[in-house]
């Protein structure tokens, strides 16, 4: 018997501490509902569950991303639906104008409505946005088109606005199909330099071959004067006003200051070497004026015209854009028209798991239904019917693709939500506590703690038996 070291009491105390620690962990699990509250509880389980939790949270976010994508698509599709209705009305007016019972005044009223409807088409294209992203003009950051067309229109005093050739140019009382650009408001070199990289192009009245003029501040690249769709670069360095500019354009085309003399021979192609004669061009002329299209200047006004006078009274542009004029360089204009908005939607929880929504440019330039559309004559109205039909087909194709995007996103959401649910169940099996089992463990440990406390009390009383040996 010993009194300095009560071994039974020490043993009971040790076991009681073990039970107390276990009871504390059980209470922690019961109060938090988690089986793993710190890494020491289950190091491997913690690593697995946290990794799976990251996947689950990523999938939940991807689901919300997909819903945002659907909202974007629905916004664009709603605007396109209104554009479809406008095009239907334009076509309706064009069909009405082909009826011979209407006079010029009646058709003028129809044209007024068509003009306003076209303006609204352009407005819808330029102002439809989702969270600051402009959806229908191919531009992700700025409002409206940043096309070269608008740039040139803002710089020059006036320009042919019909989109095609008219009969403005006249030589010796004979009119010719022509485009007109007035550079009179350019009065300083700084004004001229704003034309840098701007330009224009036109096609002859019998083909779609494009002839482009581009303004540059360097030595012109003559290799661009190819046999098809040539580009004539004009060096604008040192030019101080519009009159000097058109003179420079003319000299660049013909190799020197020259006035082209058209002929009444309707099928005559310019003859090189017949300088000063009808249809003649100097030997110094570039290939840019080898065709029926020629250049003439009047002060600060530039005329680009077809030297066959029998085409002056025709309606331009015709189908295929023959006889068309646009204030853009041909290649630049085509790139602008085909520009599309690309929006990446993150539809998964990992890197690279995305889909791209592509919304093509559907402004009036892309739809080819701008200022050139007219219902002022039955002939023009028939052309307007074809133009509006083509425009509607482009809008409908875009709407169809947007509908496909929305259907895909809805399936994506269903799949992502299902995957997240199954992953969450797996995480729960690892990280969440089984309350029934843990409660049974709590009851057991609670009883053991009470029993241990009672036994410790009895063990502490054991040394008192020594007192019996000390009594006399």
Write the topology of this structure.
Layout: H1 7-32, H2 43-97, H3 104-127, E1 129-130, E2 133-134, H4 148-155, E3 158-159, E4 166-171, E5 174-182, H5 189-193, E6 199-203, E7 210-216, E8 231-235, H6 242-254, E9 271-272, E10 280-281, E11 293-298, E12 301-306, E13 325-326, H7 330-337, E14 340-346, E15 354-360, H8 364-367, H9 378-431, H10 435-461, H11 466-470
Parallel strand pairs: 7-8, 9-10
Antiparallel strand pairs: 1-2, 3-5, 4-5, 5-12, 6-7, 6-13, 11-12, 14-15
Helix pairs in contact: 1-10, 2-3, 2-9
Helix content: 40-55%
Distance between the termini: 18 Å
Sheet with the most strands, sense and barrel status: 5 strands, antiparallel
Shape: elongated
* Rg estimate, integer Å: 41 Å
Q: Tell me the strand percentage band.
A: 5-15%
Q: Helical element count? A: 11
Structural class: alpha+beta
């Amino acid at each position: 018997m010993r009194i300095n070291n009560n071994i039974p009491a020490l043993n009971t105390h040790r076991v009681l501490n073990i039970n107390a620690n276990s009871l504390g962990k059980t209470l922690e699990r019961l109060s938090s509902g988690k089986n793993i509250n710190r890494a020491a509880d289950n190091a491997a389980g913690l690593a697995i569950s946290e990794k799976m939790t990251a996947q689950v949270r990523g999938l939940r976010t991807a689901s919300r991303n997909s819903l945002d994508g659907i909202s974007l698509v629905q916004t664009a599709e709603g605007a396109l639906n209104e554009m479809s209705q406008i095009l239907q009305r334009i076509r309706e007016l064009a069909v009405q104008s082909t009826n011979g019972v209407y006079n010029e005044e009646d058709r003028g009223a129809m044209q007024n409505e068509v003009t306003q409807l076209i303006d609204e088409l352009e407005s819808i294209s330029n102002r439809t946005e989702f969270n600051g992203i402009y959806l229908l003009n191919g531009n992700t950051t700025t409002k409206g088109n940043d096309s070269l067309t608008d740039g040139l229109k803002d710089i020059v005093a006036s320009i042919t606005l019909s989109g095609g050739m008219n009969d403005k140019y006249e030589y010796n009382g004979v009119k010719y199909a022509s485009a007109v650009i007035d550079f009179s408001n350019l009065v300083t070199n700084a004004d001229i330099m704003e034309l840098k990289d701007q330009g224009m192009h036109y096609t002859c009245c019998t083909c779609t071959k494009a002839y482009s003029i581009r303004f540059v501040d360097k030595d012109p690249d003559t290799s661009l004067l190819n046999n098809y769709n040539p580009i004539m670069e004009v060096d604008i360095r040192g030019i101080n006003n519009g009159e000097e500019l058109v003179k420079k354009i003319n000299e660049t085309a013909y190799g020197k200051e020259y006035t082209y003399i058209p002929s009444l021979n309707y099928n005559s192609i310019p003859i090189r070497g017949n300088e000063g004669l009808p249809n003649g061009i100097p030997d110094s002329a570039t290939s840019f004026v080898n065709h029926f299209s020629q250049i003439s200047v009047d002060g600060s006004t530039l005329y680009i015209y077809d030297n066959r006078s029998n085409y002056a009274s025709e309606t331009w542009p015709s189908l295929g854009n023959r006889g068309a004029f646009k204030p853009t360089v041909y290649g630049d204009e085509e790139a602008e028209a085909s520009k599309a908005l690309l929006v990446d939607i993150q539809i998964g929880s990992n890197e690279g798991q995305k889909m791209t929504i592509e919304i093509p440019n559907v402004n009036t330039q892309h739809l080819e239904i701008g200022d050139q559309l007219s219902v002022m004559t039955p002939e023009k109205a028939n052309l307007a019917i074809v133009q509006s039909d083509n425009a509607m087909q482009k809008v409908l194709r875009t709407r169809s693709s947007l509908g496909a995007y929305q259907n895909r996103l809805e399936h994506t959401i269903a799949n992502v939500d299902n995957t997240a649910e199954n992953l969450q169940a797996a995480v729960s099996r690892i990280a969440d506590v089984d309350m029934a089992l843990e409660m049974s463990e709590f009851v057991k440990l609670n009883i053991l703690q009470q029993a241990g406390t009672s036994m410790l009390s009895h063990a502490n009383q054991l040394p008192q038996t020594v007192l019996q040996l000390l009594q006399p």
